[in-house]
Amino acid sequence: MRLLVNKIFLALSVLSALIGLTFLGWILITLFIKGLSSFHFSLFLNDLIEGGLRNLIIGQFILAGLASIIGIPLGMAAGIYLQEYGRGRYASLIRDLSDIMMSAPSIVIGAFVYAVVVIPTGGTSGFAGAISLAIMMLPVVINTTDNMLSLVPRELREAGISLGASKYRVIIDIIIKAAKVGIMTGILLAFARIIGETAPLLFTSETSNYFSLDLTESFPSLTVSIYDLANEPEESSRDLAWAASFILTALVLVINLAGRFITRNKH
Amino acid sequence: MPVMNIKKFSFTYPGVDHPSLRDINLPIEKNKITALIGPSGCGKSTLLRAMNRIHDLYPGNKYDGKIELLNEQTNQYSNILNIKKENEFIQLRQQVGMIFQKPTPFPMSIFDNVAYGLKIAGIKNKTELKDRVEIALKGSALWKEVHDRLNVSAMGLSGGQQQRLCIARAVAVKPEVLLFDEPTSALDPISTGAIEELLVELKKDVSIAIVTHNMQQASRISDYTAFMYLGDLVEYDKTENIFLNPAEKRTEDYITGRFG
User: Fold this and answer.
1) Fewest beta carbons within 10 Å, which of A65, A226, A265, B101?
2) To the nearest whole angstrom, how far is the Cα of B107 from the nearest Cα of chain A?
3) How do the domains of chain B map onto residue ranges?
């Protein structure tokens, strides 16, 4: 009897796993078939206005890159504060807030940036988009830094202090180095997350059909353009959206794999 | 003239009513090894960690009494419990180094590990750094094993080698006192033997206080032994007296293995 229950349970879990994997596979296969059929290398050479995706891919990377430049130092500094200096209620309040922010719906963050950046500055801009993505990124970086630093053994801090180093030197020279791999992985995953975001950009950076490096204007974004293109009536636009989705998924996949690869090499 | 003099010292951890150490009086003799022994929870590590005020990394501790440290230039004692400023703490820890139970190599090369304290102390000259690292590694009996791979990460060394590296790192800054907190309890017997020999060798240059659970170790290497129990210092004497002819019943019971 127990053997039977065991078998039923096993069968059920295998079945659930299969159902989950089926949908994942389905998405990937559809993406692969639809995306690949409209994929062409000229997509990387032409801008959207000429039927390509070059400006969008570059724009998306610039937005995510700028967001990282804002979000990573801020997030790491906050994480270091929480783990190394923060004590008592104030620190736990910040930690809780950061955890809540992690699950804040991305569209809400977009709406927030729309209200505090886009409206006062008089229009959508690359900066607004980057700020929006930076806010998305911040809690992930804070959380990873905080957690990874907490894994560094206490003795390592004490050993540094015992050699006459001041606390901040120990943190910079030793503790961050010891937690480097974990923090880098977290940052990479945070980057992979924001590079595929649409909602925070929808009404902050919007998108542009043209190549642009001017961050004070509406800025080309791959994800927002996928949203726009998919809503177009023409078949060719929708095909382009498929190709763009395919490229985006491949990018996110590569970044995620890189993150895993780094962690695996560590252990 | 002892290099350190602990007088009527009491210590209370934050959030605890009763002190973990009561009224401790203990000298740390110059160029000798002083062993602190006693059952778990007796306060020997707590006492050791007060001697370079590493407790102060965590706020809220309460110190009473005095821990005097001899300044070798002026031959005068100063009470380290009065230290408040960051630069005084840094100076204290350069005078009183510490080695931990688990080896604590920094995630950097062997050379940079040993040079770390020297760089912190302000030595920038490359040849001087090189020389002092070499001297420290030779002094810690590690030079032969690592001289051809100084730029390799220290994390790849064996546990015993890592511990000797930590000793080299602490010795490099030329401290007056070195505190060892059960330095061999995570090591195999051969590495333990090497570290014990090293300690006996080191006392030519530095005064040593060592916490150990291993009574054979205390009797093998130390010159003086302090037996602690439940926060009190029960007995302090020359090691042979403690082990052969203890004055206190509790000391005798512990040493003969009747409790602990």
Assistant:
1) A265
2) 6
3) 4-255
